[in-house]
Each structure stands twice: as C-alpha cells, then as structure tokens.
C-alpha cells in the first residue's frame, strides 16, 4: 500500500516541473491545499483535477478538453492558470459532500462559465447561499455533461451523504470523508489522540466513528452495503483517491473493502 510520498506528506507539494498539479493517473492530477480547521481539528485539503472531453464544444474537427474539479481547494491566480494550462478550461466543479464546499465560491467567481454541482443536503444549507448549482434529478447518476468519463453513486447515511466518483478511464475511485487515512505522524497531542480514537489515522483509517454510528442508527448499513458492492463489483476500482491521507495507485478495491469493514455483509445487518 504505497504511492508517491508527494501526495501524502506535503501541503505545498509540486511535481518536478514546479507545477502544483501532481500526476496521479492519465488525465488525473491531485493538488495539495492548506490545512483548514474543522471544529478545531486540523484537516489538510486536497483536490482532484480531471481532464475530460468538452461536451459543450463542437468536436467534429478536433477533441476539446476541459477541467472537472473535485473538492476545490483555496484558489489563487497561479493555480487557476496551471489548472487550465494542464487540463483545459474549467467547466465542472463538484462538491462531494456537505462539508467540502469551503472554496466553491472562489471558484464560481473565477470561472462563472463553469457548472457547479452540489451534493445531497448542501444545496439547502445556509452556507451554500450564493452558490449556483446545476439542477440534478438524482445524485446517484452522473450529470450528462461528464457521464462519459466519470460515474458516481451516493453513500446515504441520512446525514451524512457523500457522493463517490469513479474516473472510468483510469479506474480511479474518489472518496472524500468516508475513508480517512490521516498520516499517523501528524496526529499529535490531544486532538491527534482523539482523531486516532475516531479511527481516521494511518493505512487502516476508516470512516469517523460518529458517522458509522449514524449509518447504524438510521438503519442505513444495508443500503451502504449495496453501494459498496456496486463500487467493488461493477466499477472494479484499481486506484484510490481520498481527501485526507494516503491514496493508492493499485489494489484499490481491497483497500476500500478493508477501510469500510464496518459495513456488514449483505443480509447480516446486525452481525456486529
Ligand atoms: Fe474532509
């Protein structure tokens, strides 16, 4: 279970060319952002940039590319130009859950032509005021404008609800907070101890225990199992991207199943 150390340890990582976009797969880059505070706990930020065919352009003469942005980090002029230079004009910006929205307004203001996509619950939240999201019929289906390259499904725990994405060409599954593998060496002091007790540290990190409890209390674990089976059996992911901690370049299906061990097998909802 290993991949480039650049992705795991630095908040200002850059590749050998000096770009902050670190190649993760063909047409998929990761960018490390600053650490933000979440109820006083330090959380490093990370976004993904995927270059996809631009369905809004006439592609009869040449293939046009555009950028699809997942969980955008804090934006500056340099990052904006690097993204567009590398992956194409920014046309799609997605928030995967109702926590990862913090920098959406910056991106909307900078790229007003881009479509913004909410996750379940986010659109109704007061914090989302001022964000203009695309209307969607179901968060379990990718928007037609990017569906050729990227699939998605929802882990519905009542609250929380998280949209998990799948970049089909590279077989990369993209989780946000449902799988957290915070670098164990970064979990220091009382807050680090609490995060370790919450089950979100190291290679064996998982879903925060309070989220697992919400799935259990809401009797949502059967549905979670269906969603997980869909990811593992239909998507067959090979690479794993997560927002907090160690990503994986291979063996993603086994890692995901191990990290989500709290979701019981089918028809055995209350086994443990
Ligand atoms: Fe997060």
TrEMBL record:
Stored Pfam families: DUF4336 (PF14234)
Organism superkingdom: Eukaryota
Full protein name: DUF4336 domain-containing protein
Taxonomic classification: Eukaryota, Sar, Stramenopiles, Ochrophyta, Bacillariophyta
């Amino acid at each position: 279970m290993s991949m480039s150390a650049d992705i795991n340890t630095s908040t200002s990582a850059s590749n050998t060319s000096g770009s902050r976009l670190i190649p993760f797969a063909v047409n998929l880059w990761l960018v490390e952002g600053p650490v933000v505070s979440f109820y006083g706990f330090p959380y490093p930020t990370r976004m993904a940039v995927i270059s996809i065919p631009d369905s809004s352009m006439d592609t009869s003469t040449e293939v046009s590319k555009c950028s699809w942005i997942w969980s955008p980090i804090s934006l500056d002029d340099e990052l904006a130009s690097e993204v567009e230079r590398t992956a194409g004009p920014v046309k799609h910006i997605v928030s995967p859950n109702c926590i990862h929205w913090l920098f959406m307004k910056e991106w909307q203001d900078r790229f007003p032509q881009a479509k913004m996509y909410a996750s379940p619950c986010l659109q109704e939240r007061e914090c989302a005021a001022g964000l203009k999201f695309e209307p969607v019929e179901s968060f379990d289906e990718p928007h037609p404008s990017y569906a050729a390259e990227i699939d998605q499904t929802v882990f519905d725990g009542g609250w929380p609800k998280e949209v998990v994405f799948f970049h089909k060409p590279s077989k990369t599954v993209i989780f946000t907070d449902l799988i957290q593998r915070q670098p164990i060496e970064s979990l220091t002091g009382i807050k680090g101890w609490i995060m370790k007790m919450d089950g979100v540290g190291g290679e064996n990190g998982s879903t925060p225990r309070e989220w697992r409890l919400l799935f259990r209390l809401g009797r949502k674990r059967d549905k979670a199992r269906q969603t997980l089976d869909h990811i593992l059996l239909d998507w067959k992911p090979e690479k794993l991207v997560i927002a907090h901690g160690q990503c994986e370049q291979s063996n993603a299906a086994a890692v995901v199943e191990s990290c989500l061990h709290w979701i019981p097998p089918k028809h055995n909802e209350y086994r443990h």
